[in-house]
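[retry 2/3] Cell division protein FtsA: previous attempt timed out, resubmitting with same input.
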Amino acid sequence: MGLIDLGSWFRRGPEPLLGIDISASAAKLVELERTRDGALRLLHCALEPLERGWINEGNIEKFDEVADALRRLVRKAGARTKRAALALPGSSVITRKVHVPAELDDDQLEVQVEAEAAQLIPFPLSEVALDFCVLGPSANAPGYQEVLVAAARKERVSDRQGLAEAAGLQPVILDAEPYAARLAARRAIERLPGGGRNLVVALFEIGAQSTSLQVVRNDDMIYERDQAIGGEALTQRIERHYHLSREEAELRKKQGGAGLADYAQAVLQPFLDNLGQELGRALQFFFTSTPYNKVDHILLAGGSAALQGLAPAVTQHTGFTASVLNPFEGMAVAPSIPAARLATEATSYLVATGLALRRFG
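[retry 2/3] Cell division protein FtsA: success.
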């Protein structure tokens, strides 16, 4: 068994790279570059909606339709780069940290990691795409080094690889969505007091169908949980309250309820209160299953994080300060990207930004 066909999941490189995030509701693209002074610059970004059922729980159900959408996405973004970083849902990737003797050479290390993986993975290694990254000396075991091992079923890897190739792209990196999200969130965490050091931060990514929670401290994920609530619930409220089609309700939601009487009070605020309560419950599960009893800050990302009034509602219902995470904050932006579009879409690009950041060390 060799390592993953796409090249290392953990490889960094300076060549141009597209970060492409494929979720249940949309495909998103981000390309970054560094300016001469070393600052990050957003070069391209775009979002292409996907119809319900095309992607189901991370599985590609309508391959040709998604590939067509991916081609439209690249054209819409105006990107010429073909090298792409993609990601699998966290539920499709098994990651573990193992400790191996520090004196192993590369060949011995690979053999040792495969032996460790065989004990950790609940299916045959012949069915697995496997990769690993040396994190550094073990803090608890002198003479050993800590290694992060990642594995996914080969068919899940092949699906993402084939999708990119069908869209005319060259897939070179495959990541796990939670890792990409944390990489993008790191810049926001570093802007918190004390550079974010030793702070316990709850990162909520609020998608169309579900919301994921990662609690992180010093780049380490200490808790994760998924909940079946997302922006689709607001679309359904609009649909019922105003007797609209689903398509019209979705459009009005994206327009902030424009033209809908009493939208903010009758529809939006009840949804925000319910979402705030659900996020509070997720944190309570975290507190009851770990030694922690508080978080220092809440970061809100995902498409629904752009909803007006969400951060105050989450702060009110959880008791912890919440803010919306814009993954492009502090970056220069290419003049071809409309500021108005970024203002409404930026929160959707968390994972795609993390994937695009894999270009840099």
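[retry 2/3] Cell division protein FtsA: The chain has three domains: 18-91+155-180+349-359, 96-151, 192-328.
[retry 2/3] clearing retry counter.
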